[in-house]
Structure formats: structure tokens, C-alpha cells
Amino acid sequence: MPDHQDIKSGKTIAVISYFYLLGVLIAYLTNSDKKSEFAYFHIRQSLGLWLSFMALGYPIGYFDNWQITLSFWMSFGILFIYGFSTALSGKMIPIPLVGNFFQTTFKKIK
After folding, report:
1. Are residues 62 and 26 in contact, defined by beta-carbon separation less than 8 angstroms?
2. How many whole angstroms separate alpha carbon 17 and alpha carbon 85?
3. How many CB atoms lie within 10 A of CB 47?
4. How confident is the model over 79-105, as a mean pLDDT?
5. 97 φ/ψ sector (left φ>0, alpha ψ -120 to 50, else beta)
6. Neighbours of 28 (CB within 10 A)
7. Least packed by Cβ within 10 Å: which of 5, 24, 42, 60?
8. Residues near 72 by Cβ (< 8 Å), separated by ≥ 6?
């Protein structure tokens, strides 16, 4: 568990990581000097969220049903807001349903 100083120094980087894949890349490169565990946690969460969005969004776009598309966008939006708000509040809480999977999948990002 990171200390208060680690959270304070990594909060900006963690928030930047939620701004699409470019934000993930910028956050990762910026954090390579500071090595904030808090920032790495949110970089892994954000990377998993955006890759899942792209992998699932493309096939879901082919459904000719607004209910499927709307439910996809709403679920992604809720997960995104949850991850973003935990980064803003300085907490290391995984995104529901998929957060622990993202942490184990991208554990090499340190």
C-alpha cells in the first residue's frame, strides 16, 4: 500500500492516464522517473479499460440495435467515471468486475 506522499505525487499522473491511450502513454512515460505505485495502479486500470473499450466497441458497433449500443456505452461510462473518481480521490480501488483482472494481466507495468 503506497504512503501519503506516493499518492500525492502520483495523483496527477493517475488522472492523466484516463485520457484515452495517449494519456496512458504520457502517464507511463512520466511515471517512469517517479515510480509511483499509485500511478502504476491507475495506469493499469485505464489501459485495461481503454483496450476493452476498443476490443468490444468495434463488434458491438455492428449490431443494429440501439439498446445494445446504449448499454455498452453506459456500462463503459460508469466504469470510466468510477476509475477516474477513485484516481481523483487518491484511492486504489479496482474497477468493479474487471479491475482485478486488469491488475493481474498488466502486472509487468511497473
Report:
1. no
2. 12
3. 21
4. 95
5. left
6. 19
7. 5
8. 56, 57, 60
* Coil vs helix vs strand at 82: helix
Calculate the dihedral angle through the C-alpha atoms of 13, 47, 18, 81, rounding to the nearest 10 degrees: -130
Q: Are 82 and 102 in contact (CB under 8 A)?
A: no
Q: What is the DSSP string of the chain?
A: ---HHHHHHHHHHHHHTTSHHHHHHHHHHHHHHH--HHHHHHHHHHHHHHHHHHHHHHHHTT---HHHHHHHHHHHHHHHHHHHHHHHHT---PPTTTHHHHHHHTTT--
Grid cell digits, residue 10: 502520483
pTM passes above 0.85: yes
Cell numbers at residue 69, please? 449500443
Sorting pLDDT into bands at 50, 70 and 90, what band is 101?
very high
